[in-house]
Amino acid sequence: MNVFESPDFDHHEAVAFFDDKKTGLRAILAIHSTALGPACGGTRMYPYATTDAALTDALRLSKGMSYKNAIADLPLGGGKACIIGNPATDKSDAKFAAYAEAINTLGGRYVTAMDVGILPPDMPVIARGTKFIAGYDQPGKAGGDSGPATALGVFGGLKAAVKYRLGVDTTKGLRVAIQGLGKVGMGVAKRLHAEGARLIVADTNMKAVAQAVETLGAVAATPDQIVTAECDVLSPNALGAILNDVSIPRLHARVVAGGGAWFDPAVAPRMMRAYRSAVAPRRREAARLDLLTRREHDVLRLLARGQVNAEIAEQLHVSQGTVKSHVSAIFEKLGVRDRAAAIVFAECGLLLGFFLPGDSLLFTVGLLISTGVIHHSLWLACLVLTAAAFAGNLVGYEIGRASGPAIFRREDSRLFKRAYVDKTVNFFDTHGTRAIVLARFVPIVRTFITVTAGVGRMDRRRYLTFSGIGALLWAVGVTVLGHLLGRVTFVQKNIELILVAIVIISLIPVGIEYLRGRSGGRSAQLEPRAQRSRAGRHAGQ
Questions:
Q1: For residues 454 and 399, is the Cβ–Cβ distance under 8 A?
Q2: Of 63, 80, 159, 423, which is the active-site residue?
Q3: Can you tell me the mean pLDDT for 307-323?
Q4: C-alpha to C-alpha distance for 474 and 437, rounded to whole angstroms
Q5: Nearest 5°: phi and psi at 111?
Q6: pLDDT the model gives residue 215
Q7: Which segment of 25-29, 93-97, 311-315, 514-518 scores lowest on mean pLDDT?
Q8: What is the three-class DSSP state of 84?
């Protein structure tokens, strides 16, 4: 591969290839940037399948070190070295001496340290031949093995991700799949085990896997299985671009947090396409559900099965007060109160809102508050719903006042029917000003009467007075009625059937209007035919 054509080449300052025939050393050193100081990054020893794979690692990791050092506000740039070879069989003092001399040829522009495949005993051997080395145990000097500190950092980041995503402060009881059991991965595994997590582990080093199984109670998996294992958290701590356009749609983990190279930037476009096609639709449907904690998901699942608070509390081994708190949080995050107010507003003020479930919605809110499913004050709900109804009335009035009679000259459509307007005008003529109050309890009419009052230029102050009274009586009355019925034992035990009945009843007025409209349409079509038939008989005589 030509270095300049590599997808991972990012205007690196230098890329050096070293081949020492005598010792068998084959290494690539990449310097990404020395803008902040000498390039610093570890040396990795790995049996790469091809030199292109080693080059990709060196380019990618050196760039990463530039950002890491800059973020840490260190006077260092980014660099990385990759030695091609098996760390278990290909190490020798002579090879490390040759590698030290390779570092020296860069004149101090690169400072090495430990990475995958290089162990603490290897560092003093390399240090015999170069002073441009750091990150290993030296008498009287700071530094040393970075593995434990890195493991601690990964563990802290993993816990932060778990708290953000799953809403818990501990990993106890969570299933964590760990890819890689090197210095970092094993350190993370030990900390997770100490906190009570259940571990699934994988590594190409079967001795490390056996150690984790024996000492940490882990379950062994193959490197191919670990990415898609059934788990709560996936922690990559090894080589390999494990997140790609194939594996992402198959992930079961809700959290991915580790210290390894997670994905291959070269396949980022394909990864994004895979994400959009497999994950984005589910995310759009469950965007709000993603805000819920793990416990809130449990509560919501049991609610969906029709269980009441007492049953949920018993099953989850918590108090009813705790369940109510979770339910309150669920409804807050899902925006149930906001949606209820929005529906009430639309039905009262927007011409196309007549089909919305105003009465049944208010009744259901009161019912759910009474049964403890919605843990909010009844009077707060009444206040919000009254305000939404009044605001809708005001908007409808202003629409009619601004548009004038022309707004009712629209042709019939699936949603707008001239018959709705005629029915509302007749209602207004029959009941006069009282219609503003009474219409609140008549579906369809309550939507159009606000506009009708505006078209007729009804005195604004008088309209607002009666509109406020109507909104208050309707919103409070129907909601309180639902709340009172919710205390009835029969209702509590048959809440699912009651809710279904409410939905059916709320659809009856719309169904009646639909049937009337079809009946009227047929009559209008039949009348001309009858007239033509009579005319024909007269002509025949």
A1: yes
A2: 80
A3: 73
A4: 9
A5: -115, 125
A6: 95
A7: 514-518
A8: strand
Give the CA angle between residues 353, 358, 360 to the nearest 5°: 140
User: Which has the closest alpha carbon to 349: 398, 399, 396?
Assistant: 396
Inter-residue contact 46 to 116 (CB < 8 Å):
yes
Distances (CA, A) of 371 to 379, 386, 475: 15, 22, 19
Q: Checking DSSP bridges between strand 219-220 and strand 198-202, what pairing results, if any?
A: parallel
> Which of 43, 166, 64, 159 has the alpha carbon at shortest distance from 110?
43
Q: Return the beta strands (E) in 119-261 as ranges.
A: 175-179, 198-202, 219-220, 233-236, 255-256
**Strand pairing report for 110-114 and 39-46:** parallel
Query: How many angstroms separate the CA atoms of 519 and 39, rounded?
Result: 84
Widest CA span of the chain, in angstroms?
129
pTM tops 0.85: no
| Phi and psi angles of residue 320, each rounded to the nearest 5 degrees, phi first | -65, -30
- Are 73 and 48 within 8 A, CB to CB? no
Q: 88: how many CB neighbours lie within 10 A of its CB?
A: 10
Structure-token match 């290839």, residue found: 17
Quick one: how far is CA 212 from the chain centroid? 33
**Domain span(s) for CATH 3.40.50.10860 in the chain:** 3-145
**Packed helices 378-403 and 460-485: angle between N→C axes, nearest 10 degrees:** 150
Cβ-Cβ contacts under 8 Å for 44 (sequence gap 6 or more): 57, 61, 80, 81, 82, 83, 115, 116, 117, 118
Regarding the domain with residue range 3-145, which homologous superfamily does it belong to in the CATH classification? Leucine Dehydrogenase, chain A, domain 1 (3.40.50.10860)
91 assigned to active site? no
Q: Which amino acid is at 311?
A: E
- Terminal-to-terminal C-alpha distance of the chain: 101
Among candidate residues 240, 216, 218, the one with its CA nearest the CA of residue 229: 218
Q: What does the pLDDT read at residue 521?
A: 52
DSSP assignment string, 150-184: HHHHHHHHHHHHHHHHH--S--TT-EEEEE--SHH
Q: How far is CA 421 from CA 270, 359, 396, 410, 448, in A?
A: 55, 20, 14, 11, 7
Paired strand residues for 234: 177, 256
What are the residue ranges of CATH 3.40.50.720 in the chain? 148-285
Residue 279's H or E segment, with its range, is none
Say whether 383 sits in a helix, a strand or coil. helix
Q: Which of 258, 253, 281, 286 is nearest to 166 (CA)?
A: 253
DSSP bridge pairs for 20: 25
Residue-wise pLDDT tens digits, 395-416: 777 777 776 555 555 555 444 4
Residue 303's pLDDT is 54
The CATH homologous superfamily for domain 148-285 is NAD(P)-binding Rossmann-like Domain (3.40.50.720)
